[in-house]
Amino acid sequence: MKREKQPLVSVLTPVYNGEDHLAQCIESVLAQTYQNWEYVIVNNRSTDRTLEIAEQYAQKDKRIRIHNNSEFVGCDENGNIAFRQITPESKYCKMVHADDWLFPECIERMVELAEAHPTVAIIGSYGLRNERVSWDGLPYPSTVMSGREICRNSFLGGPYVFGSPTSTLICADEVRKRSAFYNEANRHCDIEVCFDILRNRDFGFVHQVLTFTREHIQAESTFSRRFGTDYLGTLEHLKKYGRTYLNDEEYRTCSERSWKKYYRFLGAKLLHGSDKGFWEFHRKELARMGYRLKYGGVIKPVLAEMLDLLFNPLKTSKKIAKKLSR
C-alpha cells in the first residue's frame, strides 16, 4: 500500500513508570513498514525517566506527541484518556502498551485486512506472550468471521482470539461513538468492549505473529491469575452479553459452568491459602455486579477435595509429588 493511499492510524501508548521498556516499544512503532501514523504517548504522572525518554523521541519525529495527565489516574482510565487523543482524521486505532512491542509488519497487515473488508471493526492476530504464541485456534486461512459467531463461540468455550489491547487494531469510528471506550469498573474491559462492538460488526484475523506482550510479576495479568479476575470477568460478560449471543439453553449451560468453575477456584483458595485482601476483593466485585458471595458454594468443592484426599490416598500422594517436583 503506497503511503499516499494509506489511511491514518492513531497509535496509542498509555504509560506509568515505563522507562525499562518504553524505548523498545517506541522503536517498534518507528520500525513499522506502514508509515501513515500518529503516535500519542500518554504519560500518567510518571516518576521515573518515562517523560524524558518520550520527549527525546518526540523531538526526532513530528508524528510523535505527548499528553501529560494533570493528575494520576487508574490504568483503564488512562487508556480512555489515550483513546480521546486520536485525531478526527484517524481511521484506525492501534494500542501498544509500554511493556510490549510490534513486529515491523503489524500495522500494515492489519490495515490491509481492514481495508479489504469494511464490515470488520476489530482485527487480531497471533501474538507472542513472553516465549509462547497465543490467540490461535481459528482455522486457516479464514480471515473474516461474523462478530456474533465469534462471541458466541467464545462463550461456548471456543478459542479465545481477542488477545490483549496490544494485539488488536480497532476502527476509530467505534472509539468515537463511545464517551468512554473502556468500562473502568471491569478489570477485563478490553474484552467487554469486544463483545459490545461485535454485536453489529465482524472480526478480522491475520494468521501471523504480529505483536509481543510482556508478562512479568508487576503485570496486571499476574494479579489476574492470583485473584481469579478471569472468572469474575466471564460472569460479568455473561450477564451483560450472554443473552445477546446465546439461546436460552446455551446461556443456562454457560452460566452454570462458569459459576461452578468460579466456586471451585474459591474453594481451592480457601483450602490452600489466598493473598491478603482476596475475600474482600471478591465480595466487592460480586456486589458491584449485583451478586453476593455464597459461602455454601465455596465449601462444596472444599469438601469434595477433602473426601478425595481421604478415600484416594494413592492419587493424593501423586498430586503432592507432582507439586513438589515443580
Indicate the structural class. alpha/beta
What top-tier CATH class of the largest domain fits best?
Alpha Beta
Radius of gyration: 22 Å
Shape: globular
Q: List the secondary-structure elements in sequence, H or E.
A: EHEHEHEEHEEEHEHHEHHHHHH
Into how many domains do the coordinates divide? 2
Can you give the helix content as a percent range?
40-55%
Kindly report the CATH topology of the largest domain: Spore Coat Polysaccharide Biosynthesis Protein SpsA, Chain A
The fraction of residues in strands falls at: 15-25%
Number of strands: 10
> CATH H level of the largest domain: which superfamily?
Spore Coat Polysaccharide Biosynthesis Protein SpsA, Chain A
Summarize it:
By secondary structure, the chain is of the alpha/beta class.
